[in-house]
């Protein structure tokens, strides 16, 4: 099994999804164009990472974004879509 398919199956297992992946072609990827998430340094994860957050009722999306910036000591953070509870 290729490294890419192995990574996808790990993600599926973590998410509790059972699906079958089909590999059409095996190819090498240049390290100049990225790396697997588990190979990234903490600094790279902080710069390029995504936080999947289940926001509790009460605070606004803007407040939560502000808290994240303070907690992680970063200058930029934002949200996409809605952080409102279901």
Helix content: 25-40%
Straight-line N-to-C gap: 38 Å
What profile does the largest beta sheet have?
none
Count of DSSP E strands? 0
Low confidence ranges: none
Number of helices: 3
Average of the residue pLDDT scores? 80
Compute the CA-based radius of gyration: 17 Å
Give the helices and strands as they follow along the chain: HHH
How many structural domains can be distinguished in the coordinates?
Answer: 2
* Tertiary shape: flat
What percentage of amino acids are in beta strands? under 5%
Q: What oligomeric state do these chains adopt? A: single chain
Polypeptide structure, described:
This protein is an all-alpha fold and 86 residues long. It folds into two domains: 39 residues, no CATH class; 37 residues, no CATH class. The chain is 37% helix and 0% strand. The chain is built from three helices and no strands. The longest helix is centred in the first third of the chain and has 13 residues. It is flat, with a radius of gyration of 17 Å. The mean pLDDT is 80.
Compact description:
This protein has 86 residues and is mainly alpha-helical. It has 3 helices and no strands.
